[in-house]
Write a sequence for this structure.
């Protein structure tokens, strides 16, 4: 739940975050992506694109604000399994399904949107890593189920 909330909160200051990472990677505030390769190229390209879009169409950031909000709302749903894992196992199962669909989404939409393959793999890792604790919680909830029936 905490990681969902934290990842959601990181969607609010995207422009600042990209500028900070670009600076850490040695890029100047006005550098072009073509001056770099690999990760630095990608970060500068995204930073410059975001700067351009936000300067001309600031309302686009509202979409990532809602993305951030959705992460926080999804985290709230997991309070149910924390309180009563047997009764709310469906939330855990829905989370596992969502995690399983992350690689499908990343590997389908990534190439369409021109996302580098290595970044698609990073996106896939969120689904894979997120699945693991949910699977452990699901197993625990199943083991607790007989105890709740007595």
């Amino acid at each position: 739940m905490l990681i969902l909330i934290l990842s959601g909160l990181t969607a609010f200051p995207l422009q600042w975050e990209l500028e900070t990472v670009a600076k850490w990677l040695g890029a100047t505030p006005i550098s072009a992506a073509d001056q770099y390769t690999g990760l630095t190229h990608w970060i500068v390209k995204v930073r410059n694109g975001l700067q351009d879009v936000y300067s001309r169409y600031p309302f686009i950031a509202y979409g990532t604000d809602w993305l951030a909000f959705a992460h926080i709302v999804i985290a709230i749903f997991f309070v149910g399994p924390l309180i009563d894992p047997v009764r709310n196992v469906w939330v855990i199962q829905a989370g596992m399904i969502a995690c399983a669909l992350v690689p499908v989404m990343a590997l389908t939409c990534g190439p369409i949107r021109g996302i580098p393959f290595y970044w698609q793999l990073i996106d896939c890792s969120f689904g894979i890593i997120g699945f693991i604790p949910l699977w452990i919680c699901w197993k625990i909830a199943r083991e607790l189920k007989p105890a709740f029936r007595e």
